Amino acid sequence: DAGVIQSPRHEVTEMGQEVTLRCKPISGHDYLFWYRQTMMRGLELLIYFNNNVPIDDSGMPEDRFSAKMPNASFSTLKIQPSEPRDSAVYFCASSLKWTGELFFGEGSRLTVL
Amino acid sequence: TQLLEQSPQFLSIQEGENLTVYCNSSSVFSSLQWYRQEPGEGPVLLVTVVTGGEVKKLKRLTFQFGDARKDSSLHITAAQPGDTGLYLCAGVLSVSNDYKLSFGAGTTVTVRA
Fold first, then answer.
1. Gap between the Cα atoms of A54 and A45, Å rounded
2. Residue of A43, A45, A109 to mutate, testing the B interface (most B Cβ within 10 Å of its Cβ)
3. Residue B95 pLDDT more than 90?
């Protein structure tokens, strides 16, 4: 079975531009998570969905960040406008249950100049 | 402030040596997971411990959950270069009839050949 698929793997953009990160979770997994990883703050949970419904978005840093899950096989994380401090690796993960094993994608490395 | 404190932050050892990584908290966890993350990839689950005092072995890796379910350790015997990576612990915390998964900041392990 294919794992969690993220795109793009790398994104370099300029401050003020819109960034859209994409994720395809493992089929049959009811939970989808978006994490951000930096050296300073480690892995931070941004938002998670259960059955395509956003459950907890308290980790979303500010209104510039938004996430959607239009169906069970696709989710997006959008940053508009992007800022240099948004530079990080963004991971999507899925799981069968909330406290179960998380299956991570390979991540999207974002650099905002 | 991290809910889970991992120590040490960095560890560099020679091939064949043993090492121990610690994960501590003042909170009681329902369960605790250990992940390993290699450069350019997402974290991968190694083990989940659930019962206080539980010990699990995965080849040369030994995981222990503290009796009070507040701490855990990972011991690697005769480390190999392939053990190099970022080791992350993640605790499942019961909060007001809900569950919260929190990651530690991680321990970067380098095993020199």
1. 13
2. A43
3. no
